[in-house]
From TrEMBL:
Name by which UniProt lists this protein: HAUS augmin-like complex subunit 2 isoform X5
Species of origin: Puma concolor
A Pfam match: HAUS2
Region forming the signal peptide: none
Chain segments annotated as coiled-coil in the UniProt record: none
CC per GO annotation: centrosome; HAUS complex; mitotic spindle microtubule
InterPro entries (UniProt xref): HAUS2
Recorded name of the encoding gene: HAUS2
GO biological process: centrosome cycle; microtubule nucleation; spindle assembly
């Protein structure tokens, strides 16, 4: 009798586990849909992250180029300022002014 009672308890426990599994089957389709949506969103985020990383690397390269040009630009400005002080400024004449003078 004790042995039959143990078998009955084991059977009921297993039956409860199987019933729980069967109850979750309708939710399985819903859970798969949720997982599929989450996977699609993750794929979009990965793509956006990759694009962002590429843009950051491009920006870094541009900053390096700009930084390397600054000393050249400053040297050219200093050179021009030194020569502006030496060279006299020439009067500005436009083609229109010359044409009107020649027409007289």
């Amino acid at each position: 009798m004790v042995h039959l009672l143990e078998l009955a308890v084991t059977f009921i426990e297993r039956l409860e586990n199987h019933l729980e599994t069967i109850r979750n089957i309708p939710h399985l389709d819903e859970n798969l849909k949720k997982m599929s949506k989450a996977l699609a969103q993750m794929d979009i985020l990965v793509t956006e992250t990759e694009e962002l990383a590429e843009n950051i690397l491009k920006w870094q390269e541009q900053q390096k180029e700009v930084s390397s040009c600054i000393p050249k630009i400053l040297a050219e400005e200093n050179y021009l300022h030194k020569h502006d002080a030496i060279m006299p400024s020439l009067p500005f004449t436009s083609k229109v002014h010359i044409q009107t003078v020649n027409a007289k």
